[in-house]
Amino acid sequence: MNEPVPRAEPRRSAAVWALIGAAVMAAVDEIVFHQLLGWHHFYDRSTGSVGLLSDGLLHSAELLALVAGVFLHADLRRRGALAPAHARAGFLLGAGGFQLFDGIVDHKLLRVHQVRYGVDVTPYDWAWNLAGLALLIAGSGLAVRAGRTRRAP
């Protein structure tokens, strides 16, 4: 009996790794800026206790996303459906998407927190958002290249 030949799933590979990328970037934000540097909490418009609770909820969400992403990745690998080039692109797109969403929506539109307090936030905002944009551009470039490589004979 012939086994079906596994087919790579580029979109799913990119989506799974975008989830992992967003979770990793959330973890970096939460660990570095919330815990180690103590620059802000996820929600800074209340008491310190509420800010700490919001950090715990963010940490729980990022861990759930990371675990879900790892299980989805394992499923892709088990079925031979992982498209590694698309996965790398997805990781950068997810990380950059989280960074830019946090910088624009959380920092500026909703104002749930700033990158840092007690200083001029302008250079921090530019650095934060440009880093997210750089990740998105790099991820987009990898996605385009992965798509072209896949179509090449």
Weakly predicted, low-confidence segments? none
Total strand segments: 0
Count of helical segments? 4
Mean pLDDT: 91
**Which structural class best describes the helix and strand composition?**
mainly alpha
The N- and C-terminal alpha carbons lie at a distance of: 29 Å
| H/E series | HHHH
* Radius of gyration based on Cα positions: 18 Å
The oligomeric state is: single chain
Fraction of residues in β-strands:
under 5%
Largest sheet: none
Helix share of residues?
over 70%
Shape: elongated
Keywords:
153 residues, mainly alpha
Describe the protein's architecture and organization.
The chain is mainly α and 153 residues long. 75% of the residues lie in helices and 0% in strands. The two termini are 29 Å apart.
Concise account of the structure shown:
By secondary structure, the protein is mainly α. It is built from four helices and no strands.
Write the layout of secondary structure elements.
Elements: H1 10-36, H2 48-78, H3 84-109, H4 122-151
Helix pairs in contact: 1-2, 1-3, 3-4
